[in-house]
Structures are given as structure tokens and as C-alpha cells.
Amino acid sequence: MYNILICDDDKDIAAALNIYLSSEGYNVIEARNGQEAIDAVKNHQVHLILMDIMMPGLDGISATSLLRREYNIPIILLTAKSEDTDKVLGLEIGADDYVTKPFNPVELMARVKSQLRRYTMLGGMENVPDHIVIGGVDLDDRSKAVLVDGEPASLTPTEFAILKLLMSNPGTVYSSGQIYEKVFGAAAFGSEGSIAVHIRHIREKIEINPSDPRYIKVVWGQGYKFEGNIK
After folding, report:
1. Which of 17-21, 93-97, 110-114, 227-231 has maximum average pLDDT?
2. Pick the CATH number of 131-226 from 1.10.10.10, 3.30.505.50, 3.40.47.10, 3.30.10.10
């Protein structure tokens, strides 16, 4: 059974989320602010976090940043439509995805299941080699490790999945929407814009000069592709 942490100071929203998740067989842990969420992660095995942004005390953005220093647990932000800047900031500091309030229960559960599949490595792309080396980038799907010119690169589960997709199909151009659907296993629901943030993070970790990338290229108006010689 998966343990899902709900961090939201709104008791009605937390209660609704608890009902949705419990009906799908998930075990729910609740927190009312960012500090309680951090304490819960330290004291329980947590497989996924639903994190509200605006909370008293330690807010969701700050809590996500602190959690990312130690944990790779998938974090889905719960945001209001007026919090577009905070959505981008949340993705910048390590959140995996976001759902806008008022949320559609079907959309929410699709996001949850997608993140859990990737985190537990139960899903994934079919007929993909376990070990891919292109140029100086070495991706080992068995150990979930990435080496760049022999040095380890620390990627989140989402970043690893995106890099794996692109490296598994070098030269193939994927739109942001296609990347989202293949990696998250669900329709983008307007969240494909988050892919650009994840791509930027990956470039910062695997490229010598992220502003002039060797590997992950943008094809303007179409999407992204991975270039390099397969070894």
C-alpha cells in the first residue's frame, strides 16, 4: 500500500483529498503546514506528497525546497489559478507537477498514479535498453544512474524519465505535450509547460554550457530532441 502525504491547511480540501485517495486504496497521512510535512516524511515512509503552496508558517515552496535536499519523493503542488509564478518557482526548486484548484478528481488521480508508477519504477517505456551511452552521457536504467563524462549527475525521477525517453529515441523530436504524456502516462491537462522547466534542469546537469547545449536540442515550434553518437 502506498502512503500519500496531504499537506494543506484547508481542512475541507484535505478531507476531500483523503476521500479520493482512500477510495483508491492509498493510505493517507495529513499535515497542516510545511514543517509538519517535513516531520511526517522523517517519521513515515512516504511515497508521494500533495503539497499546497499557500500555508501559514512554512509554506509549500519552502518545504519543497527543503525536502529536495534529502528526498526524491514525487511532489505534486496544489495551486490556485492566481499562483502561476509560484507554479514555476515550485518546478524550479524540484516539484514534479502541479494541479490547479479547484481540481478535477479524475485529473488528480491520473497525476498521482503516474508519479507513483515512475517513482516505484513499475511503469516505463517498453523495449528500451537498460543501458544507453550517447556521447559523454551514460544512462543506466537498472541502477537509475546517470554519468556525464564519467561524473555522476543527480536527477529527480521526472528528469531521469525525460532524459531516458529522449536518449532512447535519439534524433526524434517530441513536443512538450508528447513528452508529458509519455513520461507522466496521462494527458497534459494544460501542464505541458512544465516540461520546459524540467528540460532546463536536465541541461544544467548534463551540459557543459546549458545555453549552448550539445545534447538536448530545441526544434523551434516542434519540440526537443537528443543528439549525439550512440556508443
Report:
1. 17-21
2. 1.10.10.10
